[in-house]
Specification:
8 helices, 42% helix
């Protein structure tokens, strides 16, 4: 069973993202989404500088997002084919809820940018844990839209980066396991 909510530990042990293309309504309502984002704000944050931001993209703005993605994609790849352009539209319309997460390092902070970026990733993970704890599934995507300057400018400032598009909804089909790393290949004991 994935995303087993019977205990906090079982949820962490069984956590599984949903594929955004397979997430359907219902998604969280406004109160639940606020709770999810409030949990994300409880992320470790050296210096208490909140080096991340979240932008909610409402359903009624998804068409505008699709148009933005298409314009930016065509500007970068003028010879783009129909399927490439359609994939930008599909990307924008996945799942009932979409939150764009931004890594927003604080310029001039004594906290290294690397630590600030790690905190942004941790905030997204907390967002996903809260999503799953409420009985929904979430999927964290990056891909081309995360690295395009025009798309970034639509959500943030020049010093920020899109850390991911977080899609939230209800799985339309059973979640499937994916390969996980072998414990002994990743974990070692320091012995110097």
């Amino acid at each position: 069973m994935f995303n087993d909510r019977s205990t906090p530990l079982s949820l962490l042990q069984t956590r599984r993202s949903g594929k955004p293309r397979d997430l359907i309504a219902p998604g969280p309502d406004d109160t639940e989404l606020r709770l999810i984002l409030e949990v994300a704000l409880r992320t470790p944050d050296h210096g208490k500088i909140a080096p991340w931001r979240f932008v909610i993209v409402p359903q009624d703005k998804r068409h505008a997002l699709a148009e933005l993605l298409e314009r930016a994609y065509r500007a970068e790849k003028p010879d783009a084919g129909r399927l490439e352009v359609e994939s930008m539209h599909q990307f924008a319309h996945q799942a009932p809820t979409l939150v764009v997460a931004l890594s927003s390092p604080v310029p001039g902070s004594k906290i290294p940018v690397w630590e600030q970026q790690l905190s942004a990733g941790a905030a997204i993970m907390n967002l996903l844990h809260a999503t799953h704890a409420l009985g929904y599934a979430g999927g964290w995507l990056t891909g081309w839209p995360s690295f395009n300057g025009d798309v970034r400018d639509a959500f943030g400032q020049a010093h920020e980066k899109i850390a991911g598009f977080i899609f939230i909804g209800t799985p339309a089909k059973p979640l499937e396991e994916r390969p996980r790393p072998e414990y002994d290949a990743i974990v070692s004991t320091w012995d110097r």
